[in-house]
Design goal:
Structural class: alpha/beta
Shape: elongated
Bound molecules: adenosine-5'-triphosphate, zinc ion
Mean pLDDT: 93
Distance between the termini: 39 Å
Largest sheet: 6 strands, mixed
Radius of gyration: 19 Å
Number of strands: 11
Strand order of the largest sheet: 2-3-1-4-11-5
Number of helices: 7
CATH topology of the largest domain: D-Maltodextrin-Binding Protein, domain 2
Order of helices and strands: EHEEHEHEEEHEHEHEEH
CATH superfamily of the largest domain: Periplasmic binding protein-like II
Length: 222
């Protein structure tokens, strides 16, 4: 069954961009998964590790609650949960993983000139990162601006008139460009992170074995 005692639990994205890179990392680490990715969990054959297959957004909370010992999640999701005060320092970052790199950016319609944060005064900013957006606005002295939470299709919000700007993940900028938007500010540089809380002595040893394998993969990439 799932609750095999002593096994380290690692929460990863079940399906998506982060999942592709995560499964690739595990494979390069010489780890094979015993179950299909369609299940709720998989077992690592070479180490006593159970992999929880979940939505990326749920990973920080699963680790904070102790339901999972470790997680692999984008810095964007991790920092949003932290900025929102939902982790209460129970989930320290363990290791930067160097993949799934992207930027969280504020973007404006191309025809708007941008010369600095004050140009955002009074704007409504469509985002699924309200805590990071509001914190950046406050830190940069922007007045009267507010984030409008949207869970997708941010890039059409300005054209729909529901927002003046967006704050969203950008990798190539192609999606922004296709929607008549241009980056004004980068508020976070993100990469995948291995996160985890306090572990028992036994689980810490398993985590150490996993980290050594990850470091081996990283060295071979440099
Ligand atoms: P889920 O169903 O798990 O909630 P999702 O739709 O929120 O998935 P994905 O689009 O798969 O998420 O992205 C997951 C993570 O991958 C993002 O939070 C970010 O850290 C990273 N990411 C997103 N877009 C890119 C990109 N274009 N290039 C590289 N990494 C990205
Ligand atoms: Zn998600």
């Amino acid at each position: 069954g799932f609750d095999a005692s002593g096994h380290l639990r690692l929460a990863v994205q079940k399906k998506g961009r982060l999942a592709d890179d995560t499964f690739d990392l595990l494979k390069r680490c010489g780890l094979t998964l015993s179950q299909s990715k369609n299940r709720l969990y998989a077992r690592v054959q070479e180490l006593p590790i159970d992999i929880l297959l979940v939505r990326d957004d749920d990973i920080p909370a699963l680790v904070a609650s102790g339901a999972s010992d470790l997680g692999i999640v984008g810095g964007n999701v991790f920092e949003e949960e932290r900025a929102g005060g939902r982790l209460q320092d129970r989930v320290p970052m363990v290791q930067k993983l160097g993949f799934s790199r992207c930027r969280l950016c504020i973007a404006l319609p191309k025809e708007k000139n941008y010369s600095g944060p004050r140009d955002l005064d009074g704007m409504r900013i469509a985002t699924s990162y309200p805590a990071l957006t509001d914190k950046w606005l406050a830190d940069n002295g922007v007045e009267g601006a507010e984030s409008v939470v949207m869970n997708g299709a941010h890039e059409i919000a300005p054209r729909l008139g529901v927002a003046d700007a967006v704050c969203d993940i950008v990798s190539t900028g192609g999606t922004l460009d296709a929607n008549g938007l241009a980056v004004a500010e980068t508020i976070l540089n993100s990469e995948a992170l291995l996160i985890g809380g306090k572990l028992s002595e036994e689980k810490a040893k398993i985590a150490e074995a996993l980290k050594l394998r990850i470091e081996g993969v990283q060295r071979s990439r440099d």
